[in-house]
């Protein structure tokens, strides 16, 4: 199965510009036999957090039809990153995914808000764990950026049979080594494909929280080998994945048969 990741710069506060850019990439860069496309976190408004009240979507009423029209026009499943999204007077960082026939397959809010990006001052945290959905007949889940740091968020859908975990991100440059290591760890400790789409660019100006984004979008197989990795500039990466490898990996190292939830404890 062929998958493409659109590693792009998200222009802060410029919803229409970002939409036009994504639309153009589907027209110009989508390969005919690609089955799933992945785009980054917060692709509508970026980290222009001060203006979320005016610029965030309202219950996906703008972003879902936009992505739905791309999915049906190009007949491709879309892991639609995430958007800032207002619901009942709160603003969330909401991930969603759409099938090639235009159905909304998945919608979840980011659970852990990033103190380093001031997200907790502007956004409300989601309370629902990432779950499994099917895209192109494959069980998968979708997790937003900083939630990668909390292995429990990935463990639930993989323990429920997800074979691919998609991570959508605007991961910062200063923590690039964490991004690369954590993605590999999540693939190995769960024996699944990890497909992670980050953004690039970012500037320090009055609209900006002062970060740049690392790129290095990656496709990692269930044995922890990097299948494809982007650099730190805009780039489309294309990868072939073989879901049978997940089955084989989980037979060779039967993590889920050996889980001991009865002895795992946490404290805070
Ligand atoms: N957008 C994010 O969640 C950023 C997370 C990040 O950069 C990190 O180091 O964690």
Automatic annotation (TrEMBL):
Transmembrane in keyword set: no
Alphabetical keyword list: Hydrolase
Signal sequence, renumbered to the chain: none
Coiled-coil boundaries: none
Gene Ontology molecular function: hydrolase activity
Protein name per its UniProtKB record: Carbon-nitrogen family hydrolase
Record Gene3D superfamilies: Carbon-nitrogen hydrolase
Domain named CN hydrolase: residues: 1-243
Any Pfam family hit: CN_hydrolase
Annotated transmembrane regions: none
Family designation: Belongs to the carbon-nitrogen hydrolase superfamily. NIT1/NIT2 family.
Keyword Kinase set for record: no
């Amino acid at each position: 199965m062929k998958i493409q990741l659109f590693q792009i710069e998200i222009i802060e506060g410029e919803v229409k510009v970002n939409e036009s850019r994504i639309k153009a990439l589907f027209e110009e860069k989508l390969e005919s036999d690609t089955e799933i496309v992945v785009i980054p976190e917060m692709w509508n408004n970026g980290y222009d957090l001060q203006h979320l009240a005016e610029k965030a979507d309202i219950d996906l009423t703008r972003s879902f039809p936009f992505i739905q029209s791309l999915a049906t026009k190009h007949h491709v499943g879309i892991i639609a990153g995430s958007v800032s999204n207002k619901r009942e007077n709160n603003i969330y960082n909401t991930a969603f995914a759409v099938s090639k026939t235009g159905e909304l397959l998945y919608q979840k809010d980011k659970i852990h808000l990033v103190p380093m990006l001031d997200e907790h001052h502007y956004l409300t945290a989601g309370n629902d764990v990432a779950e499994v959905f099917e895209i192109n007949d494959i069980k998968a889940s979708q997790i937003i950026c900083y939630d990668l740091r909390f292995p429990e968020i990935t463990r639930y859908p993989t323990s429920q049979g997800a074979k691919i975990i998609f991570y959508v991100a605007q991961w910062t440059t200063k923590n690039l080594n964490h991004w690369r290591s954590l993605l590999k760890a999540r693939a190995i400790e769960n024996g699944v494909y990890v497909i992670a789409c980050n953004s690039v660019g970012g500037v320090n100006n009055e609209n900006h929280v002062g970060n740049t984004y690392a790129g290095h979008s990656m496709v990692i197989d269930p044995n922890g080998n990097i299948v494809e990795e982007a650099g730190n500039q805009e780039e489309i990466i294309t990868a072939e994945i073989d879901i049978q490898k997940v089955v084989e990996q989980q037979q060779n190292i039967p993590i889920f048969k050996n889980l001991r939830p009865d002895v795992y404890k946490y404290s805070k």
